[in-house]
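chain below, 418 aa
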Amino acid sequence: MTRESEDLKRRGGWLPHDQDELESWLDGRIDRLGDDDTAPYRHPVIQEFADLIDRDAIVRMYMTRMIEEVPQTRQYSARHIESVGQLLRLIDGVLDTAPEFSEGAMVTTPLTGILDWTMGTRSGMAAYRDPRVNAILKKVLDAWAEFLNGPGSLSVLNDSPQGWMSEKAREVVGIDQFEHDPNAEHWGFTSWNDFFTRRLKEGARPVDSPDDDAVVVSACESTPYRIGRDVARHSEFWIKNQPYSLQDLLADDESVGEFVGGTVYQGFLSALNYHRWHSPVAGTVVRAYVQPGTYFSEAESEGAEAVEATASQGYLAHVAARAIILIQADNPAIGLMAVVPVGMVEVSSCVIGDDIVPGHHVGKGDELGYFQFGGSTECLVFRPGVIQEFALGAIPQTGAAGESVLKVRSRLAVAAQS
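prediction:
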């Protein structure tokens, strides 16, 4: 597998770089289940999931067939999950665990690791678009979030090789750039999500050109993925190369007409990136809300490349759970713009800041919100003629995604003069 053709979740640090490592991890989870298929589920939401499958014939068909089918998108050495009951028990076992540290040899998103096989099948692609399935998956994710927001999730903040306080993890995460107490237990964090949504120290990411309102800064710590120009109101975002479709990306917001013919910038976040969002411009919040969506859906239009870096990120921006924040920039040459942080797989909790409400004024670089348990991708939407040029670091580089992270609050683009 070439660098250019790696699966995005692997390039982003969500799953192991090697398929065999992922399958070995899954075998280990299955071995720990034991042979008792009659044991009650530990979490009520999994029993609710089982009840849905039992009473709904269509959901039961999807869930059964997606395990039986062979994925069309990637090569697997063996079938691991044998039944719906086994799948549910594997999910049940995740809901009271927190991800351990890894540079790519382990699974940072364990639910995705479990569902990976099914996500690449025809029936799985249908199942993860089904409203009934997404509704119960949201309940599953909410149950896991409750654990990840509690003190029980702190066990992975230790100095073992798989701990987030190990010497290697400190180096990779760059913990010295973030607010923490090096002398406190668990560095003073109160939960896994408290650690994962850690805040930067003052001055760690200065705002580029704070007094120049023509300079637009990066909203996230992300890798440039795509720049779409002359974007249409309606496009078939599910087809090959997935053009942006403003009506869908912005969830039918009344502002869509202002952006037709404009520009969309998209970047994706890795498992180790900083996961808070910041305003690219100084301006006034017009609207800010979370748009529900899918959680484990993939694009099938690209065949063997369905979830690789050249494919599903554009698709996900139109269908996944996401926040939509519209800001009227102080600079009239920029005018109305949109910030759209998008969840991917279990990384789907988009939390908008309490003060990010209509009428609130934000400075360039001010915080807007954050992803709980990681992040996935973000889009910035501009009206026609707004962007004069993008900074060199914001231009996507084929095959260089791992080395081209654009720092939050750094220069993204320069607006044209009004």
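The chain is about 30% helix and 15% strand. The first strand starts at residue 215 and ends at 217.
thats it, cya
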